[in-house]
Amino acid sequence: MSERTLYDKVWDHHTVTTLPTGQDQLFIGLHLIHEVTSPQAFGMLEERDLEVAYPELTHATVDHIIPTADQSRPYEEDAAEEMMSELEENVREAGIEFSDPDSGDQGIVHVVGPEQGLTQPGKTIVCGDSHTSTHGAFGALAFGIGTSQIRDVLATGTVAMEKQKVRKIQIDGELGDGVEAKDVILEIISRLGTEGGVGYVYEYAGEAIENLGMEGRMSICNMSIEGGARAGYINPDETTYEWLAETDYFQENPEKFEELKPYWESIASDDDAEYDDVVHIDADKLEPVVTWGTTPGQGIGISDPIPAPENLAADKQDTAQRAQEHMRVEPGETMDGYEIDVAFLGSCTNARLPDLRRAAQLVKGREVDDDVRALVVPGSQRVQETAEEEGLKDIFEEAGFDWRNAGCSMCLGMNEDQLEGDEACASSSNRNFVGRQGSKDGRTVLMNPRMVAAAAIEGTVTDVRELPEAEVTA
Amino acid sequence: MTDTDEVEIPEVNYVSGSGLPIRGNDIDTDQIIPARFMKVVTFDGLGEFAFFDQRFTEDDDLKDHPFNEDQFQDSSVMVVNSNFGCGSSREHAPQALMRWGIDAIIGESFAEIFAGNCLALGIPTVTADSETIQSLQEWVDANPDEELEIDVEAEQVRYGDTTVDVTVDDAQRKALVEGVWDTTALMKSNAGAVQETAAKLPYVSDADANGSGSESSTSAD
């Protein structure tokens, strides 16, 4: 078993007791909730006559079902309105703080937590959403839970969990031009497999990780779950601390920053920490990665050929065969040139300010292909506001992108933003499962946000490194 | 608190029933329950939407799927392949399967959050190697009306004249066999220790460490 890793230390700090099952009862420092997975949990609490134990350590927002075009109430869709109303009532009764659309703080839960400074190193963070692993970017131990566990956390402030193994993923070297954090995590998943991380927590380390800003680190930790790892984390460092210092919480409580910093430093993995497994990846050799199939593990470099199913491991062949039929791709081809109908720039993986800035830089002075509908969905109202102030909205709109309000949107198609029929979508999101973006015949190609912008402009999946500089007119 | 608030948690030692095979690796929770059916505030009625897009065409015609086949309508044990339940953490997935009639799942492997969600509902997720699973799927296809039995404690599955060893994760086995898979009351009873743990965490303020719903917090009663 691992020793002296961040995971071991944070786990120990939060262990209340060992349960009769052998699981540990773990205290939860931050419980994030949203409208889709929490209402049933509040219902269970009511049935059992239980109260919310730690409302001050709980924070709510609305993201999955919120419309991104017309957000006036009541929402056009009755089901969405009902879910929102239910959340409003639940948080009001329990006294839980709610980043609702009127607050200007609403957004995707995994964007909201970090930007308000709720996400901090050494915290245990849970949410009824598998992408809760995102918060591990700050050196928190963060993982997704189901609704019955939400009930447990609401009622007791704790979850029952078994300790897992720790795999260190060491990414040495530097990322080349046009290669981003998203490419690193897509590469990791395609290399280790969608179930390679089951039973593990991933620690991402090495020069390429240290050189990333917090947003890139979040993109990586976000997709840990796509590799089967319930949690992924990065040890906190100066980059983390600088980012935290700018957040609301520490702007309002500057004394807390100095008070907590020794704790943050203490929970980082020791130099002589022991891991259950170590994997090395060479950052210099990576290129932009795109998926060719219907799991996030079916990814290749943009100039690599799509693999023939018969050349894959026996247990991957059947899935690959069906994926290639669904995507209508042939082994031996590259994904470069794959025609797309939709470009989606958004999601908890890639809808933060630097993601939008990088994409906007590429879009500036260009136009979206005539046959492509393209939309930008900022990760939060704050991201949206700043992006608008910086003129990013104008750049995107002038190029022909739709500029929307914050939410999960077309990542999972729970609101009006969905693929139609067999549309192909260049997407900065995290899942390319069949039906994921709202149409069971829809085809999703996952990629980094600049690659999405490039695909929108060209109308096909395109190597962003080969896109000539745009003529920018003043 | 009165006794009527205590939730009865049955022990799950054995599950028996006829089986049905769901073949394929990496069957994700978006396939088990598409997101559009999650626009609900209760889990009631989710059963009919299990595997919806695999079972119905655009025009609501039936597709080939075990959940549509007459001989499997009373089945309660699913036999699946690897990484079943990957993707989204939605408990709607096991809730939909349970409400359709599934009491236990035998598979090559399960995604972690999915297995945890099943445990929270008292549904065993039992694993075996791929050959065992393949034999079991073939047997179930050939014997749709015959019962198979999962012995959770002994980690065995019996079908026909065959008994095979399977694996049940330690914590899951204890939780099911001892009837402690619903952890709310158990963990609630440790409220004092929870407060002590919270109070030691530097980021939790003294006021927050006590919580507000806990029994020892000051209240007007």
| Helix share bin of chain B | 25-40%
**CATH class wording of the largest domain in chain A:** Alpha Beta
The CATH first-level class of the largest domain in chain B comes to: Alpha Beta
Q: What structural class do helix, strand and pairing data of chain B support?
A: alpha/beta
Q: Tell me the number of structural domains of chain B.
A: 2
CATH homologous superfamily grouping of the largest domain in chain B: Aconitase, domain 4
User: How many domains of chain A, as an integer?
Assistant: 2
Total count of helical runs of at least 4 residues of chain B: 9
Number of strands of chain B: 7
Oligomer: heterodimer
Quote the beta fraction of chain A: 15-25%
Largest sheet of chain A: 5 strands, parallel
Shape of chain B: globular
Distance between the termini of chain B: 12 Å
The CATH homologous superfamily of the largest domain in chain A is called Aconitase, domain 3
